[in-house]
Amino acid sequence: MVRRQDSSLIKQKERNGSLFCKQTGPNITHMKPSLLEQTVERLYTTENTNCSETLIEACNEVYHLGLDEKARRMMAGFGSGLYTGNVCGALCGCTAALSCLLVEDRAHSCAPLRSAEVLLVRNFRRIVGETQCAKCQLLHRTPELRCLRTCLLAAQAMDETITELCQTGVLTLD
Asked: How many CB atoms lie within 10 A of CB 87?
């Protein structure tokens, strides 16, 4: 299980030009990035997508959501905390992807949606350190990487959420 206790413990490690680290307890352990993390990094650095676009596109690729380009365009306005510093766009992208995985018709007819979203937000807050964009930027944004660190941490939170939902039988991935 990935634990995130103090944002100052996140350190940059270059590995083939990539930034990846996961924290377990008080020590940082550098691990092989997940497929979602690799996809997030590729999209964010090569496609010039914002945080919410990156997460929905990466989840679309990794979890085979079947979304078209219109979904990415729809998520564009959620970047930078709705461009007001409010709820993190990376969290919005993860939320949209999780909804795509769980909801067959409407939110009100999807019993596990509420608890799954609570789990995602809990994991996001623990791993990223915050859910508000302005605060996430203070913790993780740099001029060179922009919000890549936040997006990579969001991918970790999404991975952990999906794993927990699969382990409890709420979600089955093909």
From this structure: 18
